[in-house]
Amino acid sequence: MATRARFVYTRRRADEEEEEQVEASSSSSEDEQEEEEEEAEGSDDEEGVAEEEEVAEEPSARKPPAAAAAAGRGGRKGPITISLKKVCKVCKKTGHEAGFKGAVYIDCPMKPCFLCKMPGHTTLTCPHRVAMEHGVIPAPRRNTNTSLDYVFQSQVKGKISMVKPRFLVPNQLECGNIKFHQRRVTCLEFHPTKNNVLLSGDKKGLLGIWDYVKLHEKITYDSVHSCILNSMKLDTANDGVLYTASSDGTISSTDLDTGMGSPLLNLNPDGWNGPSTWRMIYGMDLNAEKGLLLVADSFGFLYLLDRRSKERIGQPILIHKKGSKVTGLHCNPAQPEVLLSSGNDHFARIWDTRKLEPKSALASLAHGRVVNSGYFSPRSGSKILTTCQDNRIRVWDYIFGNLESPSREIVHSHDFNRHLTPFKAEWDPKDYSETVAVIGRYISENHNGVALHPIDFIDTSTGKLLAEVMDPDITTISPVNKLHPQDDILATGSSRSIFIWKRKNDSDDPKEERTSQKVKEYVYGSGSRKKANGKRGDSSDDDSDGGSDGKNKKAKKTRFTHTAKGKGKSKA
User: Residue 491 and residue 484: Cα distance in Å, rounded?
Assistant: First the structure.
C-alpha cells in the first residue's frame, strides 16, 4: 500500500497566487537544471525509483458550510490528500522498481534485458554477462580473390606478425590526477615523442598536459575552446602542434609550449542564432601523406583543410544523413585515402577521399542505433571495429570481403542514459595480431559492497574477455581510455580525473609482492581547488560520470599540489 501524506494548502488572493505560480515555474526550471547536473549513475538510479504525486481534493459536498464560504471569500481551503506512489521510470507503471540498487542493476519486468536487449531473462542472469563470448562465432577469413586482395596479400600482410605475442595487461593503478579538469574528461592522447606526457580535453574546452612520471608537472590551457573539446590530433611533422575540434564549431592549431592557438576553421562565424544553425565538430583525423585535415560536423558534412596553407579545400560534402551528427572519422593507416566515418544515422561508411561525392560511399555498414566510433586496425588497416549504442561491438575481419554483415557481434555494456562521454572501443596499437581492444564498462560489479565499473580488454577474434581492470579507489565510470603506443600503460579518464595504469609485477612470493608493490600516488588539480567558503570545489555538475553510494577508500600515500590558474594557462 502506498504511503499517504497530508498537506494543508492555504489559498490566498488571486494576485498572490499568480505570484506564487511565477515563482513556482522559475523554481521548477531551476530544479530541472539541478537534476541535469546530477551524476550519470545517479540518474539511472532514479530510473528505477520514482515518486508520483496524485492530488485528490475532498468533494465539495463534504465541506462544512463555513469552509465553503471561506473558500469562496478567498480564505483557507480544506486539507488536500496527496498520495505518493513508487513507479518505474522505465515503463511508468507501479508495483515494481528498476535501475541500480547499489552495485546491482535490477531490470524492469516489462522490458527486455538491459544488457543484450533480448527478452526472456534479466541482466543478472544474462548469458552474455556470464560469458562475453556467448553466441559469438568466429567467422572464417573471406578471400575475394580480387586485385585488392592481391595487393593486400603482397604489400600489407607482411607487416602483421603471424605469431601472437604475449598480452600484458596494465592491471595496477599507478597514479592519478584527481579533478585535473573542471568538467568531465572527453578525450585523451599520448604524446608521440615524449613518452610520459599525456594530453587531455574536457567538456569546458580546457586542454591539459600532464607528465605522469613527475606527477606534479602539469599545464592547463583554458582559452583553446569555449565548450566541449571532442577530438585532438598531433601534427606528425611537428609534434609541438596540436589540432583540436570542439562543439563550438572551430578547429584550432595550438602550440603546446606557449598555449597560443590559431583558428583553422570556424563554422559559426555569426555566433549563436539558435540550435537549428549551430554546427558542432566531433569527428577529425589527419592524412599526413597529403597534408589534409578531415573534419565532420553535426549536420552530416565533411570538410577538407590544407594543413600547410590553413585553408579550406572545395565545398563541404554530405557523407551522412542530412542533419545527423558525424561522431567520428578515421583514416586507414595503410591507405590514408580510405576514410571510415561513423554517425548518428545508424551507419558507418567507408569513403575514397580522392573522389568524394554525396552517396558515393564504398560501403555502408548498418547498425542498430547510434554508432559512437569506428576504427581501422592500427597496422594493416584491414579490420574494422565499431561501437554502437545497442550494446554491441562489431568487428569486420576483412574490408575487401563481404561487408553486408559483421564477422561477429560482441555484447558489451556501454549503453548509457546521459551526462557521460560516449564509450568507444579502441584497438591496442602494440598488438601485432590486431585482436585486442579496450573499452570501459557501464554496468557496475559488486566489489566488497562497492559498485565498481571495470575497464575491459576484449579479444575481438573470439569475443572473450581477456581482463577486467578496476580499483577500489575509482568508483566512477571510465568511458575514456587510451593505450600507450609503446609501453604497457593505460590512461583512463573518469569524471574529471585522470588515472595511469601499469602492469603489476609478477611474483611467486606474496610477501615479496606486498613489499615491492608501489604505493599509489595522487595529485589534485584545479578542479578540486578550495573555494572562499573553505569547501573544496567538488560540486557535482552534469557530467560526473557516475559513482557509487559507497565511500572511496583512501590511498596509502597522497601527494597534494595546487594548480594556480592564470589567464589562458595554468602551471604547477
Answer: 8
CA distance 292 to 308: 9
Closest Cα partner for 192 from 242, 251, 156? 242
Residue 316's identity, in one-letter code, is P
Largest CA distance in the chain: 98
- Taking only the tens place, the pLDDT of each residue in 119-168 is 888 888 888 887 888 878 665 554 455 555 555 555 555 555 555 556 78
**What per-residue confidence (pLDDT) applies to 132?**
82
Secondary element (H or E) of residue 516? helix 510-516
Distance of CA 270 to the CA centre of its chain: 30
Q: Which amino acid is at 239?
A: D
CB atoms within 10 A of CB 204: 20
249, 197 Cβ separation under 8 angstroms? no
Over range 436-446, report the average pLDDT: 91
| Cα-to-chain-centroid distance, residue 550 | 23
235, amino acid identity: D
pLDDT in tens, 385-436: 999 999 999 999 989 888 999 999 999 999 886 789 999 999 999 998 899 9
**Which of the pair, 236 or 517, is modelled with greater confidence?**
236
pTM, rounded to two decimals: 0.76
Residue listed under C-alpha cell 498537506: 7
Cα first-last separation, the chain:
58
CA nearest neighbour of 478 among 409, 388, 544, 551: 544
DSSP letters, 139-198, are PPP----SHHHHHIIIIIGGGS-SSPPPP----EEEEEEET-SSS-EEEEEE-SS-TTEE
**Cα–Cα dist 333/434, whole Å:** 13
The count of C-alpha atoms lying within 13 angstroms of the C-alpha of 5, restricted to the half-sphere facing its C-beta, is 9
In sequence order, the 6+-apart residues with CB closer than 8 A to the CB of 119 are 112, 113
User: What pLDDT digit, counting tens, does each position of 33-83 carry?
Assistant: 444 444 434 444 433 333 333 333 333 434 444 444 444 455 566 777 665
